[in-house]
Amino acid sequence: MTITLFIPCFVDALFPCAGISMVQILEGLGHKVLCPEKISCCGQPPFNSGYWDEARTVAAPVLEQLKDAEAVVIGSGSCGAMVKKFYPELFASTPQAQLAKQISSRTWEFSDFLVGKLGITDLGAKFPHRVTFHDGCHGLRELGIKKSPRILLGHVQGLQLVEMSEAETCCGFGGTFAAKFPMISTAMGEVKCASAAETGAEYIVSNDSSCLMHLQGLLSRQGKPIKTIHLAEVLARQ
Amino acid sequence: MSTFAAQFLKHARVMSGDLRHRKIIRTALGNYEIARDQRQAAFQDWQGARQLAAVIKWEAVNHLDKYLEQFVAKLEARGTKVHWASTGDQAREIILQIVRDKKARSIIKSKAMTAEEIHLNDALEKAGLNVVENDLGEFIVQLRHEAPYHIVFPSMHLTRGEISELFQRELGSAPTNDPEELTMIARRVLRKKYLTADIGITGANFAIAETGMISITENEGNARLTAALPKTMVTLMGIEKVLPKLADLALFLPMLATMGTGQQITCYNTMYGGPRQPGESDGPEEWHIVLLDNHRTELLADAEQRDALHCIRCGACLNVCPIFRNVGGHTYGTTYSGPIGSVITPHLRGLQDWKHLSNASSLCGACTQTCPVKIDLHHHLLQNRRNAVKGKPAFFERLAYQAFGFVANRPALWSIAKKLGRLGQPLQKLVKGSALDPAKAWTQTRDLPPQPKESFKDWWTNRK
Question: What is the ipTM of this complex?
Answer without folding.
Answer: 0.96
